[in-house]
Amino acid sequence: MKHLTPTELLTGILWQDLQHGVFFGKIAEVRQAVQTGKAEVITGVLAALETYALDHFTLEEAYMLQTDYPESKGHQAEHQRFEELVLAAKSEWRAIQGKQDWREVAEDLSAFLEFWLKRHICHRDQVLAPYIQRASLPV
């Protein structure tokens, strides 16, 4: 995926853009933990990410329902897949904690999360945004 500027990742839906910013902040926390050697931070970030993703996805899916969004099934399937991937990442993280190669795993995790989030925003959320805006729902 090409390098995207922060502006290219905006949907124009204030709550959605702010929540996406929180996701990017979590990715930055993982990268910071790698740089500072604080592996224990990653456990907390993964737990927070799981909870935050659930809240974010629930809100998006409520808007999809309110707008009769025609692509909701595919969008929701992507949300479900992300939740499964975060659970798998938590399991993998527990298995490698305390081993010397944790930094590589954490770097791969942060790269994957960033790729997934950018792709999801560009291919799913930016398509959803006009439906929310046209429905005159709070944005």
Provide a descriptive summary of the structure in words.
- The chain has one domain (7-134): Four Helix Bundle (Hemerythrin (Met), subunit A), CATH 1.20.120.50.
- 79% of the residues lie in helices and 0% in strands.
- The longest helix is centred in the last third of the chain and has 33 residues, at 102-134.
- The protein is elongated.
- It is mainly α.
- Helix 2 (39-67) packs parallel to helix 4 and helix 3 (72-96) packs antiparallel against helix 4 (102-134).
- The two termini are 28 Å apart.
Q: Largest sheet, described in full?
A: none
Fraction in beta strands = under 5%
What count of domains describes the coordinates? 1
Report the end-to-end length measured between terminal Cα atoms. 28 Å
Brief descriptors of the model:
mainly alpha; Four Helix Bundle (Hemerythrin (Met), subunit A); 0% strand
Quick structural gist:
With 139 residues, this protein is mostly helical. The protein is 79% helix and 0% strand.
Write the layout of secondary structure elements.
Layout: H1 14-36, H2 39-67, H3 72-96, H4 102-134
